[in-house]
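Help wanted!
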Amino acid sequence: MSSTIVSLPDQTTATLPKHTYLNNEYGLKSWLLTRDHKRIGILYLITITFFFFIGGAMAGLVRLELLTPQTDLLAADTYNKVFTMHGIIMIFLFLVPSVPGTLGNFLVPIMVGAKDLAFPKINLLSWYLNTIGGIMVLAALISGGVDTGWTFTTPLSTHYVNTHVITAGLAIFVTGFSSIFTGINIIVTVHRMRAPGMTWFRLPLFIWSNYAASILMVLGTPVLAIALVLVVLERTIGIGVFDPTKGGDPLLFQHLFWFYSHPAVYIMILPGMGVISEVISTFSRKRVFGYTAVAFSSVAIAVFGFLVWEHHMFIMGVSSYSALIFSLLTMLVAVPSAIKIFNWAATLYKGSITFETPMLYAFGFMGLFTIGGLTGVFLGSLGMDVHLTETYFIVAHFHFVMVGGMLMAFLAGIHFWWPKITGRMYPENLSKLAALVTFIGFILTFFPQFILGYLGMPRRYAAYPPEFQVLNVLSTAGATVLGVGYLLPMLYLTWSLKYGKIAGPNPWQATGLEWQIQSPPVVENFLETPVVDYEAYDYEWLANKTRNEVHTVG
Amino acid sequence: MHTFISPVLWQFLVKWLTHFAIFPPEASGIAPYTDALYFYLVAISIFGFVLVVLLVTVFSVLYRKERSPEATQIEGSTLLEATWTIIPLALFMVTFVWGALLYFRIFNPPTNAMNIYVVGKQWMWKAEHPGGQHEINALHIPVGRPVQLTMISQDVFHSFSIPAFRVKREVIPGRYTTVWFEATQPGEYHLFCTQYCGTLHSQMIGTITAMSQQDYEAWTAGSTSGMSLAQNGERLFASLGCNSCHSGDAAARGPNLAQVYGAKLPLSGGGYAMVDDAFLRDSILNPTMHQTAGYAPIMPTYQGQISEEGLIDIVEYIKSLHSNFRIQQTLNTSQVQNAVQEGISGAGHSGEAAAHPASAAQPKVVSQ
Amino acid sequence: MDSHAIATHPEHAHAGHDHPPFLRHHFESVEQQREATSFGMWLFLLTEFMFFGGMFVAYLVYRTWYYPAFVAGSHQLSVLLGSINTVILICSSLTMSLAVYAAQKGRKAALVRWLSITLLLGLVFLGIKASEYREKWEQHHVPGLNFSVSDFVHVNPAYPGQPALPLDMAEKTQVYFSLYFAMTGMHALHMIIGICVLAGLIFRARAGAYTSGHTNTVENFGLYWHFIDIVWNFLFPLLYLISRHQ
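Answered by r_m:
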């Protein structure tokens, strides 16, 4: 009989399992020296949350300053330092490590049926590198700040500012190695550590997208690293690789920088897409529509992602013909994203849909990412880019992708796997409210910026012509709402650590391997190596399995 | 009425009503083309967004758990997936072609465009009209006439943006970039620096004043400082001793510069170079990399001896050279003046560079 | 059997496992561990390749633009020292391979010997490199710190056929030396890291760590060492041997 209706065991009798990775050892030392991927995932969660709120505070200052056209709250140079820090912290210390560092760390080994990532010590090292990088960024911030923008444009960063560029550059260099190591770990784990029967096409889509993102991390990050090394050398001892007065070419820096920093966008968004695949499948109780297409579109995004960097430089005097090619490739990279969106929508068709919080965030992701992606097409189109680039249109575009897309996906994932990570449920009503507040706040904050951008308001302006004020006020008002939307989950998730309902091993009746073990898992994840004999998202298998089980938990 | 609501909110509403705009003014020949592409893109965005929202909403209603307790497993559908691969691809390809056509329209100036030079530096824009008028953070242009800007930065990257004209171009240290537009509506428009360039980035703004042809001529006449760029260039040309080699004589040590602008010049390394502003500027700073065939590589570099404004003057002078008559004239004068220094080129240049009458001493005309 | 039933008995018998001491807990078999570590190493070398790749791109661009300056800059380097260093590194690759072979055969003394020779060769390489750097410093060829173009605006006595550079091109030798120091400096940094790891390996090899069936670490380090060698084999012709026939 092929029914997918799962009869839930009685949740009221559920208790927390006696032995978990959380109570295996106690004390700070057991955390700081752990090699357990699950604990490292939690370490990441703590650091990135910390940095997220610092970066968020910076964003708040930026929006407050822009409430009025004059530079009245912050002086121009302070404003520049604040938006630079906002960019550096959010990109390198929050978005890049967000899903791979926390959820990826926690879930990748479990999902492929392994006991740990391939290199647990290196995994811990990458958390330390990330934290050291973060501390260096904070050191740069406290000792006076950096005002180059997160793009470190030469020759501004090498010759014309007198702030802590070296500290910040080295900080990013260090965090870069953190993400290289995470990438290597994930790739090796996916290649070499899969459980028997876990073929490539039985892998959850979360694994596919993290795998694709890891390829980008491994191949892209070193190029940024060397570009930053050269910037630091140029600043300290004055070598002349990017210096036009010595015969160097500042555009070369742009090429090297964007060779990483465009793929970095996909490093940030791809793992989020993986989360969305899991969430949408689970809450519509259906296999993801066109699994293969979604899996390959992740890889396609990773491959094409390396070939579009020049679209950040269309007005910088690059050859028109190379601009043509890069514009064409940019159009091509938009297609796999469109495929994903439609496949997710089609997954809902004839499903059995419930609307838990992760699903709401996933819907938010789909709407906002669609806008973010389509406005990316505006910018990839050569003639349109001339007017829109370097304005608030671009700010709105990447915030739709990064905040509307990635952050929504991250929150979806955190809520979705929270029962697995902690063994307890989050409060459902409050979290739905938070999802709604976030969505409204987000639209209010960033939608006006599209209009501002088309009106021509340049980005990174501490002061602006008064006619732009109305839209800026709207945006600042939205940012306040958004801030509340982000504070709520932090509060109730912390609350749920002690007071949340006990979740049981599989509260969502999901099919992934991670849901077939206890929550929170034991240190070794699986007591026996699992043998996988079913496809990903096979709800019939799950229903059968549940039917044959003893109906007690714990 | 505003007794019911707070005065701050009232003021805000008034501002909203008087200042709210969704589109900047369409004030150039390009603007309607850009806006057309924009409307197309907005249309496909709305279409895509509405489609996704509709799909999600309809499915959520139809297949919510209460109505559809059991999901029907569907593997996928190649036909459907091909549909939503090909349709977006087609729409994006239209965007690509349209955008590319617009790009070439924006960046390929018509041949009859008048040329204005712009030098960007932290944190001001300096415009130099061919007639020698200088402006800071302002640019006066005639309506109905194509204007090309040849731009360079003295320090860091800047970007010259006029939203009302829908044009923008990066201004880069060490190389010329150009942008052109044809204003269609008289008026005053924003000029922004859009590439982050340091502390006072947001103060690197200015006003573009588009005026009728007559007004423009009146303005030009009223703001002249007496010397055109080419005239400045001529003086510089003589004082740097350029004329001693580029005299135009058959036996001269340097190539003949009369009518060289726009020509195709054979290079000593083989191949040809189109002589444009960038080539002339680069030949002065990096002569070794641009050696004309048939001449010995004896030209010294003038790197560090001429300011960007001085280079613009010389370039403008060379562009205006239709014969060698003026060079011969200046040569005679400077031979008298520099009788002592003649031939000692290395020592001569540095001394003369300090004394050259380039724009440093020029009175700046700042309109308004 | 359903897995959360399993999960209630986490005290599975560790002591009962009879796996070799070097097999880490999360690997199923020695074979899996070997494959995973060597795959990880290759991936790491791929990132190293991209790391140096950025500089090679810069080199390519500027060499095309400023060819005469690159020739003149290159002529200031000592081909002899460069060649010696190349030979040293290739030899060290050989000794590294022999070390790996010794580890695989379980010969502890040979392993320690070959690793020590590799380390020694690495140190000699760095010593020669350091003396080259010192010479550059004395000749004022270090861009930014003490660069002077005077060597390039006159005919190089070692290459009388090569004309002196005009001043504008002579200044571009700074770009050459910037790349020279950046590339060889990054290479030397990798050598230093390699030597530190090597010292650790020798220390542990003396305790017999790699000669009891577990050779992954030595093999993977070997890959790293060969990679450094290969990078040098590109750097040497690109930096030292530009247009030497003239």
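OP: Thanks! One thing I noticed: The first strand of chain B starts at residue 114 and ends at 121.
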